[in-house]
Fold this sequence. Notes:
Keywords: Amino-acid transport, Signal, Transport. With 379 residues, the chain is α/β, with parallel strands linked by helices. The protein has helices spanning 3-20, 39-59, 81-93, 105-118, 147-161, 175-190, 209-216, 229-242, 259-262, 284-299, 307-324, 329-337, and strands spanning 24-32, 61-63, 66-76, 98-101, 122-124, 140-142, 167-171, 195-200, 222-226, 247-250, 272-276, 342-344, 347-349, 362-368, 371-378.
Amino acid sequence: MNQAFKITALALATLAAGSSHAQEVVKIGHVGPTSGAIAHLGKDNELGARLAIQELNAKGVVIGGKKVRLELLGEDDAGDPKQGTQAAQKLVDSKVNGVVGHLNSGTSIPASKVYADAGIPQISPSSTNPKFTRNGYKTTFRVVADDVHLGGTLGRYAAKDLKGQAIAIVDDRTAYGQGVADEFEKGAKAAGGKIVGREFTNDKATDFSAILTSLKAKKPDVVFFGGMDAVAGPMLRQMKALGLNVKLVGGDGICTAELPKLAAGTMDDGQVFCAEAGGVDGAQKQAMEDFKARFKASTKLDVQVYAPYSYDAVGVLVAAMVKAGSADPAKYLPVLAKTEGYKGVTGNISFDAKGDIRNGALTLYTYKGGSRESLAVVR
């Protein structure tokens, strides 16, 4: 054997030895609207997931006796159902081991079939439409309460606590906006509230003069909006311009740190009331504050809404893989479905038979001085 051959053989042997000890990569997908009008919310969700990946890799994750490296594959669905299914298929083709997302119910619902057909677990950190977990897919989960709880609670709150005598409803006709508005209407009526008008817009609209003028004639004292903050902000500006001085109530889509900026200084203190489909109380508050501090240190940004839920969704997926001893979706999915009492920054996480979180919390908020203030945590 000549010297050159010896060197080549040694190099090949070294490479082979190295490859046998190569770290396994576990791929987790994230999908949200990281472009478009609500990109600030999609990026918030993605950054929460990335922080979880970063921290877990720093601690070291061992699955089935092997140390693994977690990798996040981010996709943009722009809040569009068609783009959402395309993003889902791209992740399936990339052979991800699990998915965190999507943000919007309107994209999560059609995408859930893509993941179900591929047998890949999907945990949404923010989709609240009840239909999301009611298609019978074993791969579909969420870590927030649904709109039956959220919309119904807001409806009762508007009728009883805000003493709404004449309540108007506007929704953006998306799966999320219309769904939460429907549940709000049921809750308000059940609590004795009178619905004096219902109008609709779309999630790209900027001019609401016609529907607001129509509602003003009906003299409401409370207006509920089912939609996102990118639409609610301009709507608040136009309400002010029209002299429609009412309380605005909305779901988690408007309940963001960005809303006062989008309203451009037209929000009065105590005018807007909203609910986030999640919340912590008691000793759990410190864990959430610690998360927000780590998030700010890592991203230089404040949490918008659901970054902590994306963070926990990653944690729940990885915990199930570790417990199952495998990142193979077919092997860890049954363990994921039986998740009980996972201790996250958002509280203890357990799933029911549909994949919904058990005993999901809501947090009611208002705004004062341009900042969101918590009113109560409701379960």
